[in-house]
Amino acid sequence: MNRDNTAPTTDDADGRLVAASADGEDQAVEAALRPKSLDEFVGQERVREQLDLVLKAALARGATADHVLLSGSPGLGKTTLSMIIAAEMGAPIRITSGPAIQHAGDLAAILSSLQEGEVLFLDEIHRMSRPAEEMLYMAMEDFRVDVIVGKGPGATAIPLELPPFTLVGATTRAGLLPPPLRDRFGFTGHMEFYEPSELERVIHRSAQLLDVAIDTDGAAEIAGRSRGTPRIANRLLRRVRDYAQVKADGRITREIAVAALGVYEVDGRGLDRLDRAVLQALLKLFAGGPVGLSTLAVAVGEERETVEEVAEPFLVREGLLARTPRGRVATPAAWAHLGLVPPRQGSGGAGQPGLFGT
Ligand SMILES: Nc1ncnc2c1ncn2[C@@H]1O[C@H](COP(=O)(O)OP(=O)(O)OP(=O)(O)O)[C@@H](O)[C@H]1O
């Protein structure tokens, strides 16, 4: 395998234990934990089943598999799945990413060195430069690129034939892809967040590979705090393992997992210190809102972008916070989660009586 670029998306890789994007340690350990076949890949039943058909049909025809687009949040297994596609097809894989391809020439160099049937994994495909994107259209459709030689009026396009290859594009936001690019994929798989029971299976599998003893309740406890994301589940498992080794006999039980994740400030629902600070400010200082984003950010001493991009998406997904035209509002579940009682209707607070029936 060839990795041209290892830069992860860093939008929330700021050292948080519950960040969905990969940090350096993750990258080192992940290779060992990645499932190697579709059978080993946990969850994502629909994508797995559809992909299985696509790959088996291509194998039966003796052809290269259709181009595949995988969309979904960081850490849900897009890179893993691309490696599995290559393994199932018995093909080598080349890994690169949109931000690493700034010029069409960068892409031409990669494409022209591919072997027949090779899988090209292009992470963050929505961040590729425009000229490279246009070159990719032709490469995907006709297995051909025009290499421009020279500059200005004397420039000439030299057509270059490419061997058939399978492009696996990954994006966190399929909606950002221009339709001509989206349309050139024969198969699109949308990766969903994982159910806790699926994450439990991921955790048991990883524990076995890491040679860590863990019981059912211990795995369930970690799974429930992993925000639907295998990468976070694997990371929490490693931190709980550390705790179990230092403070106990190395075996992970529910009690150990609860104590360890308490030390790391990841609560029962997977919220960390920042998430809880935002909720606490919203509830305690603004009686549940509505309150403007900037005001909320000042109250927690963070940048507006940090609150909006790092903390809020998960709080919204969990149904703890709502973004409304009048500002941020806490839901009844937020009060319950922090063990607080919402103010009574018409009690004069900044709350918005009636919005959630509180
Ligand atoms: N379905 C799964 N079963 C078991 N482990 C998984 C699964 N999906 C992901 N993982 C594990 O989670 C980690 C992150 O997965 P991966 O790197 O494939 O995510 P990604 O979606 O490509 O993330 P990014 O968008 O940040 O590149 C890997 O260690 C992988 O082993």
Automatic annotation (TrEMBL):
Chain intervals for the UniProt region annotation (Head domain (RuvB-H)): 268-358
Gene3D superfamilies with a match to the protein in the record: 1.10.8.60, P-loop containing nucleotide triphosphate hydrolases, Winged helix-like DNA-binding domain superfamily/Winged helix DNA-binding domain
Residues that coordinate or bind DNA: R304, R323, R328
Domain AAA+ ATPase: 64-197
Keyword annotations from UniProtKB, A to Z: ATP-binding, Cytoplasm, DNA damage, DNA recombination, DNA repair, DNA-binding, Helicase, Hydrolase, Nucleotide-binding
GO MF, one example: ATP binding
Catalytic reaction annotation: ATP + H2O = ADP + phosphate + H(+)
Chain positions recorded as ATP binding sites: L33, R34, G75, K78, T79, T80, E141, D142, F143, R184, Y194, R231
Keyword field contains Disulfide bond: no
One Gene Ontology term, aspect cellular component: Holliday junction resolvase complex
GO terms, biological process: DNA recombination; DNA repair
Region (Small ATPAse domain (RuvB-S)) location: 195-265
Residues annotated to bind Mg(2+): T79
Localization (cell): Cytoplasm
CDD domains membership: AAA
Enzyme class: hydrolase
Domain remark in the UniProt entry: Has 3 domains, the large (RuvB-L) and small ATPase (RuvB-S) domains and the C-terminal head (RuvB-H) domain. The head domain binds DNA, while the ATPase domains jointly bind ATP, ADP or are empty depending on the state of the subunit in the translocation cycle. During a single DNA translocation step the structure of each domain remains the same, but their relative positions change.
Task of the protein: The RuvA-RuvB-RuvC complex processes Holliday junction (HJ) DNA during genetic recombination and DNA repair, while the RuvA-RuvB complex plays an important role in the rescue of blocked DNA replication forks via replication fork reversal (RFR). RuvA specifically binds to HJ cruciform DNA, conferring on it an open structure. The RuvB hexamer acts as an ATP-dependent pump, pulling dsDNA into and through the RuvAB complex. RuvB forms 2 homohexamers on either side of HJ DNA bound by 1 or 2 RuvA tetramers; 4 subunits per hexamer contact DNA at a time.
Binding partners and assembly: Homohexamer. Forms an RuvA(8)-RuvB(12)-Holliday junction (HJ) complex. HJ DNA is sandwiched between 2 RuvA tetramers; dsDNA enters through RuvA and exits via RuvB. An RuvB hexamer assembles on each DNA strand where it exits the tetramer. Each RuvB hexamer is contacted by two RuvA subunits (via domain III) on 2 adjacent RuvB subunits; this complex drives branch migration. In the full resolvosome a probable DNA-RuvA(4)-RuvB(12)-RuvC(2) complex forms which resolves the HJ.
Name of the protein: Holliday junction branch migration complex subunit RuvB
